[in-house]
Amino acid sequence: MEWREVVEHPSLKDLPFKIETNEWGKIMMTPASFAHGIYQAEITALLKSLRKEGKVSTECPVRTSKGTRVADVAWSSAAFLKKHGIKKMELRESPEIVVEIESPSNTVAELEEKRLIYFEKGAREFWLCDDDGNMRFFNPQGELKRSEIFGEFPGHIDIGMV
């Protein structure tokens, strides 16, 4: 299936899953959790508060060599937005920062593959938030102590889990 068909398909609009496609156009679904959504909102809010320039997006579809993958959170600079616009069904190039929030169904191999394919599409950094709120930051050369673009971004997201 093409991404436009997935997005416009009436039976797929209200599913409680994150939908992506693989390299053969087959739909893949990841169940969402309440905590996942909270981490997504907190990371989005922090990015917006730290930088007025550029835009933060959630559920950002990027066409990759392995199908359309949907980043949980992404940050795009003003230059990226000027070059690509915002009225796209899916991006052909990755925003500068792509954030994935680990879900219970994710495997280490799946997250590693996502990291590599976003870098193939031009991401400058890939961030990973684990299910305890610990952040890991990567550039194409490997893991970083902290983000080079958002150096003040915390290494832990506290969502006040009880």
General description of the model:
By secondary structure, the chain is of the alpha+beta class. The protein has a single domain (31-144), classed as tt1808, chain A. It is 27% helix and 30% strand. The protein contains four helices and eight strands, in the order H-E-E-H-E-E-H-E-H-E-E-E. The protein has helices at 3-8, 34-50, 78-84, 108-120; strands at residues 17-21, 27-31, 55-64, 67-76, 97-101, 125-129, 135-139, 142-144. The strands form two sheets. Strands 3-4-5-6-7-8 form a six-stranded mixed sheet. The radius of gyration is 15 Å and the shape is globular. It starts with a helix and ends in an 18-residue tail after the last strand.
Short description:
The chain is an alpha+beta fold. Helices cover 27% and strands 30% of the residues. The protein has a 6-stranded mixed β-sheet.
What share of residues are in beta strands? 25-35%
Please indicate the count of domains.
1
What's the tally of helices? 4
Determine the structural class based on helices, strands and strand pairing.
alpha+beta
The CATH H-level superfamily is tt1808, chain A
CATH architectural grouping:
Alpha-Beta Complex
User: Mind describing the biggest β-sheet?
Assistant: 6 strands, mixed
Poorly predicted regions: none
- Rounded to the nearest angstrom, the distance between the terminal CA atoms is 41 Å
Alpha carbon gyration radius: 15 Å
Helix content: 25-40%
Kindly provide the name of the CATH class. Answer: Alpha Beta
User: What topology, given as strand order, has the largest sheet?
Assistant: 3-4-5-6-7-8
* Overall average pLDDT: 86
Global outline? globular
Order of SSEs, N→C?
HEEHEEHEHEEE
In total, how many beta strands?
8
The third-level CATH topology is: tt1808, chain A
